[in-house]
Design goal:
235 residues, mainly beta
């Protein structure tokens, strides 16, 4: 009985293997990944977050404010792509990206439950340098992983607000996606996660004209950025 089952298994496997071999598709752009360098662009959506550390600071009137970002709004991202071939499995990529979005800071007073909302517009330029790890190409698609570092510059800081972001940030980013080879272009959907490593909350608030807002800055000891980006690139 066991021999019969093994014979059926190997016969089925051989038939399936033969069918797969027969259904192999003609590869679009078979040599496109062997270019030493190429360029492209991507567009997508993102969501900004901030990992906030509260101080529990008690003001002169006894108020204690705690901050959080309870909801997220989708932002728009656009980037340029420059890609350099390293070997059949790895590419070095530099992808300057502009992110247009916002963060919705919400402060809640501990005793009274009073709420103060401070939405901040965050438009910043990131300069990621990443390595793309690709698998072997299967017909006209190829999964990949990404990993690297980035620097960020906030190009639209809003001063004289309850909170202020620092101009510069840096961090790590990781992601995954898949290349789809079309007859004249390569389309690559991708999901990327960005983790800031620097404290992005400005504590020196010499810009504040309304000193009543200083209590909200004093309520936060720091914050590190987080972001999820869903994009599609054309190369």
């Amino acid at each position: 009985m066991m021999s019969k089952h093994l014979a059926i298994f190997f016969t089925s496997w051989w038939v399936i293997f033969g069918l797969c071999a027969q259904t192999q598709k003609v590869k679009n752009q078979p040599y496109v990944d062997q270019r030493w360098y190429h360029f492209g662009f991507s567009v997508g959506l993102h969501s900004q977050d901030l990992l906030i550390n509260n101080t529990g600071y008690r003001g002169e009137n006894g108020e204690v404010w705690f901050c959080e970002i309870p909801s997220y709004a989708a932002g728009f991202s656009v980037s340029l792509i420059s890609d350099m071939y390293l070997n059949p499995y790895m590419n070095l990529r530099f992808t300057p990206t502009m992110h247009f979005g916002d963060k919705n800071f919400t402060f809640r007073e501990e005793a009274s439950g009073a709420i103060f909302k401070a939405p901040i517009r965050s438009n910043y330029l990131t300069l990621p340098l990443t390595v793309k790890f690709g698998s072997l190409r299967i017909n006209n698609y190829r999964p990949f992983l990404l990993g690297g570092v980035y620097g960020a510059w906030d190009v639209g800081r809003q001063k004289d607000q309850a909170t202020l972001m620092k101009a510069l940030d840096y961090g790590l980013e990781f992601g995954f996606g898949c290349d789809f080879y079309l007859p004249i272009i390569k389309v690559c959907p991708e999901i990327k996660f960005c983790f800031g490593l620097a404290n992005w909350i400005e504590q020196n608030r010499s810009d504040l004209r309304n000193k009543e807002l200083m209590k909200y800055t004093q309520a936060i000891s720091g914050g590190t950025s987080r972001m999820v980006v869903i994009s599609i690139s054309f190369e």
